[in-house]
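User: Reviewer 2 asked us to show a designed sequence for the structure in our supplementary figure. I'm pasting the structure tokens here. Could you produce the per-position amino acids so we can include them in the response letter?
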């Protein structure tokens, strides 16, 4: 939301996730983003899409992560020349149709995973902030109680001094 406020003129599209109530809503948003990204990639509006999100490590630690999602990047397994003549497989339907179906789903899955990681990071940060706020409020209450008791004791002492002085 901060980026939307600051850099609205540089953004092409904005998907609001604040109304998402559960993982099904996030899944629908991820599918919409994935379809939009794939359409823009096929229209050659960009060369590389990088997903940047907070990866949940633990309650007090979130790791900023950048992951290239389009074009798909992976580390190919090393093959020997002997394995190059391995068995051939026939696919039904053909490989192009399978990839045309699986690649958009893969992009949507990566986006969905990032949205879940981001949500977990946000909840962890909120939990940590609320714990710190509770602890700070407790310390403040203790300090104010001591200050109140000291001022009350000073008033009582002054009244006793006045009574004794008057006698």
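Assistant: Here is a per-position design you can include in the supplement:
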């Amino acid at each position: 939301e901060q980026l939307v406020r600051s850099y609205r003129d540089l953004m092409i599209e904005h998907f609001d996730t604040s109304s998402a109530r559960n993982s099904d809503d996030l899944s629908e948003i991820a599918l919409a983003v994935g379809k939009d990204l794939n359409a823009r990639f096929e229209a050659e509006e960009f060369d590389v899409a990088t997903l940047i999100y907070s990866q949940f490590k633990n309650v007090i630690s979130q790791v900023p992560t950048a992951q290239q999602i389009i074009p798909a990047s992976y580390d190919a397994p090393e093959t020997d020349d002997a394995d190059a003549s391995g068995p051939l497989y026939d696919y039904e339907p053909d490989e192009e149709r399978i990839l045309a179906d699986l690649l958009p789903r893969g992009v949507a899955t990566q986006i969905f995973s990032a949205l879940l990681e981001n949500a977990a990071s946000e909840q962890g940060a909120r939990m940590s902030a609320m714990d710190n706020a509770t602890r700070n409020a407790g310390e403040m209450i203790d300090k104010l109680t001591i200050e109140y008791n000291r001022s009350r004791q000073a008033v009582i002492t002054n009244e006793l001094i006045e009574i004794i002085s008057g006698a």
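For the response letter, you might also mention the following. The chain has three helices and two strands. Helices lie at 2-7, 23-42, 95-166.
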